[in-house]
Design goal:
The chain is of the alpha/beta class and about 110 residues long. Helices cover about 40% and strands about 25% of the residues. The chain has four helices and seven strands; from the N terminus they run βαβαβββαβαβ. The two termini are about 25 Å apart.
């Protein structure tokens, strides 16, 4: 049975590492991107089953990437993750099709 693929898009290395460790322990296959450009390149090669997406990245806004992904791959669930607990950004992300919104720091159950 093939493993489900998760694309982690976050500029913080420690966040990517901790998410990778936990998700791999749950038997997910992981791809990582530190920038939106890396995420776009990975998305051209393989369509993940889930994307975790940081809102603030060095080369752009997670909201803009969310819009792009929803236009080209509307079926991919996207969980938005950010250290900035701004309610209007959360509402905007959910209206644009994000599956959920999580604030950093977060704990795995």
């Amino acid at each position: 049975m093939p493993r489900e693929n998760v694309l982690i898009v976050d500029d913080e290395k420690l966040i990517r590492w901790s998410m990778r460790q936990k998700l791999e322990s749950w038997n997910y296959q992981i791809a990582e991107a530190e920038t939106l450009q890396e995420a776009r390149t990975l998305l051209q090669r393989e369509v993940p089953d889930l994307i975790t997406l940081d809102m603030k990245l060095p080369d752009g806004s997670g909201i803009d990437f969310l819009k792009q992904v929803k236009q080209s791959h509307s079926g991919i669930p996207i969980i938005v993750i950010t250290a900035f607990g701004v309610v209007d950004v959360a509402v905007q992300a959910l209206k644009l099709g994000a599956y959920d919104y999580v604030l950093k720091p977060f704990k795995f159950s």
